[in-house]
C-alpha cells in the first residue's frame, strides 16, 4: 500500500472520529518513517479486525439470547392460555356439579314432602278407625251392662217367685189356677234367659273379633313406624354420602385452585427473573460496547496524533508477530486441555448411564400360569399363599407352588362386597370395596369385617399398608392419602405423586413405595423431608398388568394374556434392585 492511500485512510478515520471535514496536510516524511507507519497501520488494522470479530460474536450471542427469551415468552404465553382454559373447564365442571346436586336435593325434598303427606294421611285414617273402634266398644260395653242388670233383675224375680212358690205350696189347694199362670211365667222367664245367654255369647264373639282387629291395626301401625324409620335412616345415609361427596369435590377444587395459583405465581416470578436477567445482560452488553467504542476512538486519536507528529511507535506495537515456539506450545496445551475435557465428558456420560441403570428395578420371567378368574383386580402374598381379588368371585387363596385354588374367603353376611385392591396387614386383608366406596379389613379365616373406613374421594384406587398406616390414592384429586393409627378418624396427611394421574396398584416394599399407573409405568418413591421423591420410572412391559406384589427377590404380577387372547395369567419374576 502506498503512502497516499495510507494518508487517505487516516483522513477518513479522522473524519469518522472528529466529524470534521477539515484535515491538515501531512508533511512529507522520510522513507523509514513511512515504512514504520505502514507497519503501524497493519498492526492497527489487525487489532481492529480482531475487535470487530469479537464485537460481531458478542452481537450474535446477544441476538441468540434475545431469540431464546422471545421463544420462552411465547411458550409461557401459550402455557398461560392452557392454564386459563383448564381453569375455565374446571370452573364450568364445578358449576355443573353444583347445579346437578341442587336439582337432586330439590327432587329429594319433593319426594320427602310427598311421603310426609302420605304418612300424615295414613296416620289420620288410622286414628279415625281407632276412634270408631273405641266408640263401638263403649256402646257394646253399655249393652253388656244393660243385659247384666236385666239378668240381675230376673234373678231377683226368680228368687221372689221361689219364695212365693214355697208360700203357695202351703195353699196348693186354693191356688191351682194361679199355679198354671205362674208356670207359664216361669217358662217365659227361662226362654228369655236362654235368649240372653245366646246374645251374650254373640257379644263375646264380636268382642274377640274387635280385639283381633285392634291388634292387627296396632301391628300395622308399628310396622309402618319401623318402615318409616328405616326409610328415614336410608335417606339420611344418602344425604350424608351426597354431602361428603360434595365436600370432597369442594376440597379438590380448592386444592386445584391453590395449585393453579401457586403455579401461576411461580411462572410470574420466573418470568420476572428472566426479564430482569435479560435487562441486566442487555445493559452489561451495552456498557461493554460503549466502552469498546470509546477505547477504539481513543486509540484511533492517539495513532492519528502519532502519525501527524511523526513519532515512531515502540517495537512492541510494530513487531512482525509472536514467537513460533510460543505458538506451538500454546497449541499443544490447547490440544491436551481439549482431550482432557472430552474424556471428562465421556466419563460423566458413562457414570450417568450406570447410575440410571442401577436406579431401575430389574426382573426376569421365571414362571407363568393362566388364571381362572374373569376379572382380577388385586394381588397379595402371605405365608398361607397367594390372595387374588376378583370383581365377581370375591377373594381367592391359591397355592404358591402350583397355583391351585385352596379356598375362597367368605363374603360378609348381608353386605355386598366388590374388591378393587388388596393389601396385607398384621391382622387381616385391607380390601377396597367399590360397592360402598370404603376400605375394610377382613380376617384371614372367616372374612369378617373388623374395621371399615370411608374412601377420601369419589374415585379411590389402590391400597397399601406400611406396617403402621393405611395409604390410599384418589384419581379425582390426584393425591395420595395417609391414615393415622386410627383410620376411622380420617386421613392425617396428603402427598403428591410426581407423574401419576391414575393408579392401578401400589405397595410399600421396605422404605419404598412401588406404584403401577394407568399407562403401565412402574415407579418407585421414597419418603424424605415430608414429601415423596421419585427414585426410578420405567415401562413395565408389553402386556398390561392389573396388579403386582413385591416379595423380597420375587415379583408377582397379574397380566393380560395378550392383545388377541382373552383372560389373565399369573407371572413370577426374579427381582434385583440396587438401592
* SSE topology string: HHHHHEEEEEEEEEEEEEEEEEEEE
The average pLDDT value, as a whole number, equals 80
Binned strand content = 15-25%
Fraction of residues in H or I helices = 55-70%
Query: Helical segment tally?
Result: 5
The shape is elongated
Task: Give the strand order, joined by hyphens, for the main sheet.
Answer: 1-20-19-18
The total of beta strands comes to 20
What would CATH call the class of the domain at 363-576? Mainly Beta
- What is the annotated CATH architecture of the domain at 363-576? 6 Propeller
**What name does the CATH topology of the domain at 363-576 carry?**
Neuraminidase
The helix/strand class is: alpha+beta
- Within CATH, the superfamily of the domain at 363-576 carries the name TolB, C-terminal domain
List the helices and strands and how they pair.
Blueprint: H1 3-18, H2 31-170, H3 176-309, H4 315-318, H5 324-359, E1 362-370, E2 376-381, E3 386-390, E4 394-398, E5 405-408, E6 419-424, E7 429-433, E8 438-442, E9 449-454, E10 460-465, E11 470-474, E12 479-483, E13 491-496, E14 503-509, E15 512-517, E16 521-528, E17 531-539, E18 545-551, E19 554-560, E20 568-576
Antiparallel strand pairs: 1-20, 2-3, 3-4, 4-5, 6-7, 7-8, 8-9, 10-11, 11-12, 12-13, 14-15, 15-16, 16-17, 18-19, 19-20
Helix pairs in contact: 1-3, 2-3
Amino acid at each position: 500500500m502506498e503512502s497516499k492511500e495510507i494518508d487517505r485512510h487516516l483522513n477518513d478515520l479522522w473524519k469518522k472520529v472528529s466529524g470534521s471535514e477539515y484535515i491538515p496536510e501531512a508533511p512529507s516524511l522520510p522513507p523509514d518513517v513511512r515504512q514504520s507507519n505502514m507497519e503501524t497501520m497493519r498492526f492497527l488494522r489487525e487489532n481492529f479486525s480482531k475487535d470487530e470479530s469479537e464485537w460481531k460474536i458478542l452481537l450474535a450471542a446477544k441476538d441468540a439470547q434475545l431469540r431464546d427469551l422471545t421463544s420462552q415468552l411465547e411458550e409461557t404465553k401459550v402455557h398461560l392460555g392452557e392454564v386459563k382454559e383448564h381453569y375455565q373447564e374446571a370452573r364450568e365442571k364445578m358449576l355443573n356439579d353444583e347445579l346437578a346436586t341442587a336439582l337432586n336435593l330439590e327432587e329429594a325434598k319433593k319426594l320427602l314432602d310427598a311421603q310426609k303427606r302420605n304418612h300424615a294421611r295414613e296416620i289420620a285414617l288410622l286414628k279415625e278407625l281407632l276412634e270408631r273402634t273405641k266408640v263401638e266398644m263403649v256402646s257394646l260395653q253399655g249393652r253388656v251392662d244393660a243385659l247384666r242388670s236385666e239378668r240381675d233383675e230376673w234373678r231377683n224375680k226368680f228368687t221372689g217367685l221361689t219364695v212365693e212358690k214355697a208360700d203357695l205350696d202351703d195353699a196348693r189347694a186354693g191356688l191351682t189356677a194361679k199355679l198354671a199362670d205362674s208356670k207359664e211365667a216361669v217358662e217365659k222367664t227361662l226362654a228369655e234367659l236362654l235368649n240372653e245367654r245366646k246374645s251374650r255369647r254373640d257379644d263375646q264373639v264380636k268382642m274377640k273379633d274387635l280385639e283381633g282387629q285392634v291388634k292387627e291395626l296396632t301391628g300395622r301401625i308399628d310396622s309402618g313406624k319401623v318402615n318409616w324409620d328405616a326409610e328415614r335412616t336410608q335417606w339420611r345415609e344418602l344425604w350424608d354420602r351426597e354431602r361428603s361427596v360434595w365436600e370432597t369435590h369442594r376440597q379438590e377444587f380448592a386444592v386445584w385452585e391453590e395449585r393453579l395459583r401457586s403455579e401461576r405465581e411461580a411462572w410470574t416470578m420466573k418470568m420476572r427473573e428472566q426479564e430482569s436477567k435479560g435487562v441486566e445482560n442487555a445493559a452489561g452488553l451495552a456498557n461493554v460496547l460503549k466502552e469498546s467504542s470509546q477505547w477504539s476512538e481513543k486509540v484511533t486519536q492517539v495513532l492519528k496524533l502519532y502519525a501527524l507528529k511523526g513519532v515512531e511507535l515502540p517495537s512492541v506495537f510494530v513487531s512482525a508477530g509472536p514467537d513460533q515456539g510460543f505458538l506451538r506450545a500454546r497449541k499443544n496445551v490447547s490440544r491436551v486441555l481439549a482431550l482432557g475435557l472430552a474424556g471428562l465428558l465421556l466419563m460423566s456420560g458413562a457414570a450417568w448411564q450406570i447410575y440410571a441403570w442401577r436406579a431401575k428395578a430389574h426382573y426376569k420371567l421365571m414362571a407363568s400360569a393362566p388364571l381362572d378368574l374373569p376379572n382380577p383386580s388385586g394381588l397379595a402374598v402371605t405365608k398361607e399363599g397367594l390372595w387374588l381379588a376378583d370383581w365377581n368371585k370375591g377373594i381367592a387363596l391359591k397355592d404358591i407352588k402350583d397355583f391351585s385354588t385352596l379356598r375362597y374367603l367368605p363374603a360378609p353376611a348381608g353386605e355386598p362386597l366388590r374388591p378393587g385392591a388388596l393389601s396385607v396387614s398384621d391382622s387381616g386383608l385391607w380390601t377396597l370395596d367399590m360397592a360402598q366406596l370404603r376400605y375394610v379389613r377382613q380376617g384371614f379365616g372367616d372374612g369378617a369385617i373388623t374395621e371399615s373406613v370411608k374412601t377420601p374421594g369419589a374415585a379411590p384406587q389402590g391400597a397399601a399398608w406400611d406396617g403402621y398406616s393405611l395409604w390410599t390414592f384418589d384419581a379425582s384429586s390426584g393425591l395420595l392419602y395417609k391414615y393415622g393409627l386410627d383410620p376411622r378418624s380420617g386421613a392425617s396427611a396428603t402427598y403428591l405423586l410426581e407423574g401419576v394421574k391414575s393408579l392401578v396398584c401400589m405397595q410399600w416394599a421396605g422404605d419404598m413405595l412401588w406404584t403401577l399407573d394407568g399407562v403401565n409405568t412402574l415407579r418407585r418413591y421414597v419418603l424424605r423431608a415430608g414429601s415423596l421423591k421419585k427414585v426410578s420410572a420405567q415401562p413395565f412391559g408389553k402386556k398390561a398388568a392389573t396388579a403386582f406384589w413385591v416379595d423380597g427377590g420375587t415379583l408377582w404380577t397379574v397380566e393380560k394374556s395378550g392383545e388377541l387372547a382373552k383372560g389373565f395369567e399369573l407371572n413370577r419374576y426374579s427381582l434385583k434392585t440396587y438401592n
